[in-house]
Amino acid sequence: MRRFGVAQTAVILAYVGTVIVNYLAISLPIGGLTTREVSDLYPALFVPAPYVFSIWSVIYLGLGIYAVAQAVSPLVGNQRVRSIAWWFALSGVLNSVWLVLWQLLAIYWTVPVMLALLATLLVIYLRLDDGAPRGAAERWMVRLPFSIYLGWISVATIANISGALLHAGWSGWGIADVTWTVLLLAIATLLGVLMLARRGDLAYAMVLVWAFVGIAVEQRAEPVVSAAALTAAAVTALALLATAWRLLSVGGRRRQTAA
Question: Which candidate, 194, 217, 208, places its Cα nearest to that of 237?
Answer without folding.
Answer: 208
